[in-house]
Amino acid sequence: MPIIINLDVEMAKKKISLNELSERVGITPANLSILKTGKAKAIRFSTLEAICKELNCQPGDIMEWRDE
């Protein structure tokens, strides 16, 4: 898939754990893990907004498109 998820990079920059972010965003750690590993097929805008708010970042900071 040409969409690359860099959520782990942003989480490391902010020094926040998966469990802490999942609690703040309101999704399960399992679902956040699926997103973090790039296995998710979709993400709700409300979830993306909540993640960006908590990490103080832009959507483009956690997702990028690469031409394969």
Automatic annotation (TrEMBL):
SUPFAM superfamilies: lambda repressor-like DNA-binding domains (SSF47413)
Keyword DNA-binding: yes
Taxonomic superkingdom: Bacteria
Sorted UniProt keywords: DNA-binding
Record InterPro entries: Cro/C1-type_HTH (IPR001387), Lambda_DNA-bd_dom_sf (IPR010982)
GO molecular function: DNA binding
Keyword Cell cycle: no
Pfam families in the record: HTH_26
Domain HTH cro/C1-type: from-to ranges: 13-62
PANTHER family given in the database record: DNA-BINDING PROTEIN, DNA-BINDING PROTEIN-RELATED
Protein name in UniProt: DNA-binding transcriptional regulator
Organism: Proteiniphilum saccharofermentans
